[in-house]
Amino acid sequence: YYQTQKLTKVENKILVSAKSAMFFYDKDDKSVERFSKVNGLTDAGIRTLSYDNQSKCIVVAYENSNIDIIYNDKVYNIPDVKIRSIEGSKLINNITFYNNKAYLSCGFGIVVIDLLRKEIYDTYYIGENSSKINVNNVVIYEDTIFAATVNGILKAPYNSNTLAASQTWIGLDNAPANNQKEVQFFFQFKNKLVAAIKRPASDNYDVFIKNNN
């Protein structure tokens, strides 16, 4: 429990992931509640986790790409990505929530989970000609879904019925981050989009902020 990696706010508690388990820290009474494979979790080796305020679901993604959804203290396991035969990386890099769905940024594309039905809703292969591409994060901003990939930022209309087709996704216009460079960090902050690209052979990052166009 000392090798902490990720944290997320769940109501008045902080949920923290460790290497092989997770725990709640209650900010009010300072208590700690531990969870592991021994007492509820499906697997060990947590890679990332997050909490959705709308659906009240916690989504836990493991190093082996197994997925748990925790709702009302009940664990629902979704092993689809884990058991799927895919060449290359199946790692789940990040989790984004929108409209009762979880968008998992994966080593091959984007997996969408319906949090109400607790099942896989769709998978988007957004590389060229619907090929696999590593996605580091997804942001849904206004009427557009953005994906930070190893080849820059791609975008598509959120309400499109063809998000599973790579032709729907295009590069972000006028973005220095789109010069075939990996966008490693991508998020929304104070109604602006922020992207960070690591400089070659360096520990420094170039940060870009999208302001209108």
Describe this structure in words.
It contains 1 helix and 19 strands. The model has no long low-confidence stretch (mean pLDDT 91). It has one helix spanning 80-83, and strands at residues 6-10, 13-17, 22-26, 32-35, 46-52, 57-62, 67-71, 74-78, 92-98, 101-106, 110-114, 119-124, 135-141, 144-149, 152-157, 170-171, 185-189, 192-198, 205-210. It is mainly β and 213 residues long. The strands form 5 sheets. It has a 4-stranded antiparallel beta sheet, with no helix packed on it.
Q: What is the radius of gyration computed over CA atoms, rounded to a whole number of angstroms?
A: 17 Å
H-E order:
EEEEEEEEHEEEEEEEEEEE
Global mean pLDDT: 91
Q: Which strand order spans the largest sheet, edge to edge or round the barrel?
A: 1-2-3-4
How many helical elements?
1
N→C terminal distance: 44 Å
How many beta-strand elements?
19
Low-pLDDT runs: none
Helix content: under 10%
Largest sheet: 4 strands, antiparallel
- Structural class comes to mainly beta
Work out the strand percent: over 45%
Oligomer: single chain
Shape: globular
List the helices and strands and how they pair.
Layout (H helix, E strand, L loop, with lengths): L5 E5 L2 E5 L4 E5 L5 E4 L10 E7 L4 E6 L4 E5 L2 E5 L1 H4 L8 E7 L2 E6 L3 E5 L4 E6 L10 E7 L2 E6 L2 E6 L12 E2 L13 E5 L2 E7 L6 E6 L3
Antiparallel strand pairs: 1-2, 2-3, 3-4, 5-6, 6-7, 7-8, 9-10, 10-11, 11-12, 13-14, 14-15, 15-16, 17-18, 18-19
Features of this protein?
213 residues; four-stranded antiparallel sheet; mainly beta; single chain; globular; 1 helix
